[in-house]
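Sample entry (346 residues):
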Amino acid sequence: MEKSKALVVKEKNVLEFVDLEKPEARDYEVLVKVKACSLCTLDRRVYLGTRSRQFPFLGGHEVSGIAEKCGYGVVDIKEGDKVILTSAYCNQCELDRTGRGTQCMNKAKEPQRIKFDGFIQGGGLSEYISVPAWQLIRMDEKADLDHAALTEPLACCVHSISKARIKFGDTVVIIGMGIMGYFHLKLALMQGARVIVSEMDETRKQKALESGAHVVIDPGKQDLAEEVRKLTNGLGADVVVNTIPSLSVWNSAIDTLAPYGRLIAYSSQDSKEPVGVDFGKVHSREIEFIGTLNPTIEDNERAVRLITYGMIDMEEVIDARFPFEQGKEAFEAALKPGAYRVIINY
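Predicted structure, serialized as C-alpha cells:
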C-alpha cells in the first residue's frame, strides 16, 4: 500500500508527521501531487488554539500541484497538468448552481480528499489528495506553482472587491496591511479608486505606500474617520474594507463611511462578542454592511488570470519557503509577528 506523508495538528501547539494511505482517483476526480502549500492564517490559528476545529486537523487549502492521475469522466484536465485547488463546492446544491458557492450547503457531506481520522480543511498538507475535477482549475504550463498556491487568498479578495462595487474616483479605506490588505489595495487600484490604508505598524505603513496607497493613516495617532473626512470634503469613504479580526475597529469603520457608503466585513472574527451598532445612523445615512467569505469559482478563475498575466506581484507576500520535511520549522516562521505567507514545497 502506497503512503502519503502528511503534517497534521495533533492537538493545540503540537504538529506531527503521519503516514496516510495514498488516495485513488475516483470517478470524476483527479489525484493531485501537491507541489506547494501556503500556510494560511486559519492553519496558524488552529495550531495556536484560537480557532476551534476538531483534532487531529489536516489543513492546507492554499495549494497548487500536478495532476498525477485522472479518474473516469474527467474531461478538462489531463495527467501532468498544473492545477490549483478551489473551495469544496459540491456543484449540486442550489447555491452552487446559482453562483453562490461560497455558501455551499454540502461541504460537510463530501467524500474526504484523503482517508483521515480527523478534520480536513483543504488537505494540502498531505503529499497527495484526490479532488473532484470541478474543484480544480488548470494553470498555464509556465505558471509558477508557488505563486499559484496563493490563488485562493487572492480570489477571496477578488470576491470582496466585486461586492464593494467600486467606481472610478471612489475613496476606499483598507483597514490593515497584512496579505489581505495588500491584495485589496492592488485590486482597488485596478478599479480606479483612491486608496487610503489604515495601519499602525511602521514596516507595513511603508509597504502600503510602496505598493501604491495614496494615503496612509496611523489610527494609533490619528482619528481615522476625522482624517478621512478631511480628505473627502467632509463626506467620508465610499468603501471601507476591514481585514483585521478586531472588535475595536467596527464602529470607527462605520463612522468613516460617507452617506451611501459600503462597509465590507472581510476578516473573520475570533471573538463572538456582539458589536453595538447605531442602526439609526445606518438608516439616516443609507449605509450598507456587506459580508464576504470565500471566493466563487468565477473569482478563482479571475485570480488565476491575474497571477498568470503577472498583474499582481505575488513575491511581495512570500516571506520564506521550506521543504516539506521542514514543515514544523515552516509553521514557526509563519507564526512570527508580521509574517505574510510561508510556502511549503514538496
